């Protein structure tokens, strides 16, 4: 709702209502063509005032609930005031006496009551329609959320399967690495053993060679 637009309409309505009151006062002391002219002017301005009230009601449809309820009561009061002015204008147009005015007043009050009840019924229907639309939107959102949740669960299930497969591959890789380490340690031990054996063989060969040299060159002396 545009608060600026509503305030503008409200100000224009107050001006119209003030003009209607002035016309009503002039009707009480006018006759003939002047009265007819004033009645036509009153009817035009009253129609304009009713249209303005309808525009104000449309502006209120998108207003916050607390403000809408409070202002709707004011609009109903404005409508009642307009009806009263119309009744007074009708009295002056028909030039009714006190008794005729009372009868006419009862009929108009009944009509006003019916119009008020009809207006309340329409407002209740609009509120019910808005509530129904809101519930329908909530159901749609819930259904969409449920569908999204289902998709997420399925995707998480797929991710879990992938993680399980990856974990299995990692376990297999870890086992292979353990076997490789064992093989490397075994090879390392064999290499060390071979080096020791080779060193012993070299030492023995050197000892034998030294013994032969000693025997050949020094033992004959």
TrEMBL record:
GO annotations of cellular component type: cytosol; endoplasmic reticulum membrane; ER to Golgi transport vesicle membrane; Golgi apparatus; late endosome membrane; SNARE complex
Location relative to the cell: Endomembrane system
TM ranges: 196-215
Keywords: Coiled coil, Membrane, Protein transport, Transmembrane, Transmembrane helix, Transport
Membrane-protein topology: Single-pass type IV membrane protein
InterPro entries documented for this protein: GOSR2/Membrin/Bos1, SNARE, T_SNARE_dom, v-SNARE_N_sf, Vesicle_trsprt_v-SNARE_N
Coiled coil residues, start to end: 6-88
Taxonomic superkingdom: Eukaryota
Entry's Gene Ontology molecular function annotations: SNAP receptor activity; SNARE binding
Record-level GO BP terms: Golgi to vacuole transport; intra-Golgi vesicle-mediated transport; intracellular protein transport; macroautophagy; regulation of protein localization to plasma membrane; retrograde transport, endosome to Golgi; vesicle fusion with Golgi apparatus
Domain T-SNARE coiled-coil homology: 120-187
Protein family: Belongs to the VTI1 family.
Name assigned to this protein: t-SNARE coiled-coil homology domain-containing protein
Gene: vti1b.S
